[in-house]
Input
Amino acid sequence: MKKIVVFIALITVVVGAKFFLEYRYKQELDKGIQGASLFAEVSYQDLNVGFDGAIELNNVRVTPNGSFDTFKVASLKLGGLDFMFHFNGKSRIKSGEFPKLLKFDIDQFSFPAALYEKSVAEEECKSFGGTLQYSVAGFDEIVMDADVVLDMADPFAATLTMNGSDQISRSGFNVNFNARQMSLSQITGGAVPVQSMRYDYFLEQEAANAMLEHCAQKFKITRDDFLNKVVKSSKFMSNSFSMELGRAASNAMASFLQGGKELVVMSIPSDRLKNPNFVSTSSLSQIVRMLNLDVSLEGASVPIRTFKSQNDESVIAKLEDEEGQEDGFKRRDLNELLNAPDGTVQERVRPNLSKKKRKSLYETVTLNRVRDYLNKDIRITRTRERSPIEGYLLAAQDQILSVEIYRHGGVMTYTVPYKDISKLEVKKRR
Output
């Protein structure tokens, strides 16, 4: 009987603590909303604290003062905190004990598409952002889902992962950094010790087709002419990235904007970028070189003209030389092309320049060190004469490798047991 009484008392305390936390957080949130009333009308339906420590805010509405546009979020959820952290979190942080895992989930964040399109109206169809017209693809409202995960389980190789999707695209961003080297001064100075970064972007083909047709009609040219004469122009790339990245990047952009292809940008930043003085006195192209970018579209490498390595010099030099060929047409400013009554251009014959197919360079490594190559491009030769696998190493657990590979316009995760591997190679850093 005594055990039952103790159990009931314990349940009562825990439930009471939950309601206390919700009451306290609602009080603080309502104070914040009252202070924000000078700028916007903010409301929410409910706030919940789970027994697992997660905090969830439901049906949030934000309407800026003087505006009829409302930003809506179905659910905001912060997870990864244990229940007691809400009571002793401050003292634990002061003693250097941080949560090992924080998860932030955003469910159905929505706002009028017209707000985004208004912000890129001057660049409509003249840049990457200006080409993404949601209303043209049939959406009056942009609805996004996103999740952010900060994993500090291994401070020497901490990760920050962000994934998002809307009606026309999906993206992922991953940062690997050494949290042990990180201090408040480094964060405020913009010198976070990043070890590697990866960005993935995928554009849905049906939406891409509608947007390309819209832009072609705006320029009064065919869709192919829009891709070849506008998207591949240096002006389009400069509008998109504040610099011209070379012919290979322009061709990749034209291919990507047709939809159904995964664009991946990877970076292993130079230590020089951890020096704020270097960053503040360097040009954009210098900073890009120091990022050591590796760009690929559907797994095929895309040389970027703003940096050169010993292996890439001949390829990039040839690409730069081809810039003088003007891609078979006389280049004109985009505004001039817009004003042309029929969109016609003066054609020129482009010489047929043969290109050598660039081969990726790999080095053989041992399986007992496979965890050193997480988040890197690898190649696996399998036993019994099965086809080799090239992809991105996601995990190595329980004698099994998880590899992200490209198939049919998208990505999938493929698992390979150690026993099926006869040779493992990792892509050399350029």
